[in-house]
Amino acid sequence: MRVDHDRFHADGFAVVDRLVGDGAVTALRERFDRLFRGDFETGVPPDEVNWQQGTGDPTLTRQLCNGWKADRLVAAVVLDPALGEALAQLAGWPGARIIQDNVLWKPPGARSVGFHRDNAYLPWYRPQEMATCWIALDDTTASGGTVEFARGSHRWATGVEPPMEFHAPDDHRAPMEQAAAAEGLEPDVVPVEVLAGGGSFHHGWTWHGSGANRSHAHRRTLVLHCASSEARFHRPGFGEGNGPIYSRYAHPDDDAMDEVHFPVLWRNDGYRTLDLDSLTDQL
Ligand SMILES: O=C(O)CCC(=O)C(=O)O
Question: What is the pTM of this model?
């Protein structure tokens, strides 16, 4: 996997032709079916189950967070040390630990995902930084509602972020356009169009989202969000962003992020959370 670091730092994202092989793509699609049916291989449910077959709104993008806890193949892909190393090097960290994965499925006709900046939802740990790898499991197109990035937006002002709706806002780009106007510029919005198995890396302050799927093709994606291997919980932020969900894993007497829940994928001294390597046998 070759990631263009100059592009990533200039644009806030970099597109990559191939992140996972065809065999893994096919097998993951089958795991997506199982996960959205509530068939959790390990017996452990994902941390967030926002959509299930039978009860989920068919017009929404289906989402689960931390599918890796429920499914060993998802785990084998998102806990891959090569992805952890790539993210750590892009972000300038000594190592990378997973904060969250997203299992996303936008069928034909499903609505948008609102533009947002990942770092804005992380006041519950320090350093408040995320870097992300987005893996397409179908060929992606602009009309099929692929992810879109606002070029260079990782350098726009941070602080008060405009309010956003993640699921199906009427105008999915509106908060980003408001932020662009505050910068005094026209946003340059770039859709990630790749073949299945390709994808992108993005910076935690890059504005991104995706439009409705106006094509006849499904759009399935597996997303890996990492933080620095050195990240620690930050108690004053527990009530904000998605802190109420993930701060449940804090210890009462220290700020360590438990490696059972936030395993280290790669560190520059060779360290990696134990027991992860057996998972790669699934690939
Ligand atoms: O795929 C999408 O529509 C959104 C993905 C996203 O928010 C992310 O990768 O951080």
Answer: 0.96
Residue whose CA is at the smallest distance from ligand 1 atom 7:
209
The amino acid at residue 33 is D
Q: What is the pLDDT of residues 216-260, one digit of tens each?
A: 999 999 999 999 999 999 999 999 888 999 999 999 999 999 999
If we measure between CA atoms, which residue out of 84, 206, 81 comes closest to residue 133? 84
Residue 268, amino acid: N
Ranges assigned E (strand) in 138-213: 147-150, 189-191, 199-203, 208-210
Fold of 5-282: Jelly Rolls (2.60.120)
- The domain segmentation of the chain, as residue ranges, is 5-282
Enumerate residues lining ligand 1, CB below 6 A: 104, 113, 118, 132, 134, 147, 208, 210, 221, 223
Closest CA to 223 of 46, 101, 119, 137: 101
pLDDT for res 23: 96
Amino acid at 47: D
